[in-house]
Design goal:
single chain, mainly alpha, 434 Repressor (Amino-terminal Domain), 5 helices
């Protein structure tokens, strides 16, 4: 997992770790551990962060260099 993307995306938006943690409804320390790779980030948080940053989970995980999110499914 390319954890560097989490920090890059946060800094691009001029956010602090506490801002992202507040969005996820978790403590800043817990988010910090995700960002430095000390803990694995749960899939539900990945999904939420992809929506928050308007990108894809694949981009956050370093599986693609395409920042643009995938088209939304019509359900």
């Amino acid at each position: 997992m390319n954890i560097q993307k989490f920090k890059e995306m946060r800094e691009e938006k001029n956010l602090l770790q506490k801002d992202v943690a507040k969005h996820l409804k978790i403590k800043q320390q817990q988010y910090s551990e995700y960002e430095i790779g000390k803990r694995l980030i749960p899939i539900n948080y990945l999904n939420d962060l992809a929506d928050f940053y308007d990108t894809s989970i694949d981009y956050l995980l370093g599986r693609t260099d395409e920042k643009k999110p995938y088209p939304k499914k019509n359900s």
